[in-house]
Amino acid sequence: MSAFNQTSLAGSDPSQIIAEADAAVATIHAARAAIGKLIYGQETVVERVLVTLLSGGHGLLVGVPGLAKTKLVETLGTVLGLDERRVQFTPDLMPSDILGSEVMDQDAEGHRSFRFLKGPIFAQLLMADEINRASPRTQSALLQAMQEYHVTIAGQRYDLPAPFHVLATQNPLEQEGTYPLPEAQLDRFLLQIDVVYPDRDAERRMLFETTGTSDATPERVMDAAGLRNIQQLVRRLPVGASVVEAILELVRSARPGENSDKKLASVIAWGPGPRASQALMLAVRARALIDGRYAPSVDDVVALAEPVLQHRMSLSFAARADGLTVRDVIGTLKSRIG
């Protein structure tokens, strides 16, 4: 309660926010439990995907094949009650295969007219599977949609459903047949979520649960309207001055021209823009709500620093030649605010 007294938002009723937050927390816990029945050993991944969706953003899932990235997205669509569609990205995929295209119709009197056939992007949850296997031209077809929530075909604007989220999966770039995502598109993803191998206990459970005579099926916990209500609640949660300053310090110190440490600044080729600060501001609120807290802390900033920043910055050639990674740099930056 003290967090509300110290950092309450103008025009907000703390008791009302608390009541709404309590109801939202119960729904979120039920959703996590439903997801956990099918996805084993990926608690951090599930949390970060929920942070992404509750923040109203898009997520990039990065990991080698076979780690249930596709299954996670399909499960989320069912559990959250969203209209979910999947596009398998391949080198020959065209932008019209995602956005849709115009076709010519002819009526009984011979009059011809164009009709727009909507593509799979007109869904509430779009899964872009193996997004880095498509050409940059096709990847860029998502840019306008992810930022402006509409597409333009032949000069005509078509609004996308609400809510609209893209969850893209990506194979590591060292694998054959992939194309690096453009920096402008990477910046559209709220979080980059690294999917790692499950631990031994989770993999043991997986062996028994997935090789029997019956498979578990996901249960619907909420609907699109419920998700939008929680997204609006996330934006109303108060944020303390110390958290805001931690966000600004972290993001600004990741830019080569802003870091007072000349040695650290010299290893950064380019850093995150203001969109990273906005992403952190939303993500820390969502993480706090998932944990059942009414306001975020600096610990939330530290926990989400890597998924927010790692795809929004790059190191110099000399730093990479010395074996330094973006995670190493972010770890140093986190230590200064944690």
TrEMBL record:
One of its GO terms (molecular function) is hydrolase activity. The keyword Hydrolase applies. It is an enzyme of class 3 (hydrolase). It holds the Pfam family AAA_lid_2. It comes from Kaistia dalseonensis. Residues 268-329 form the ChlI/MoxR AAA lid domain. Residues 58-191 form the ATPase AAA-3 domain. It comes from the Bacteria. Its EC number is 3.6.3.-. Keywords: Hydrolase. This is MoxR-like ATPase.
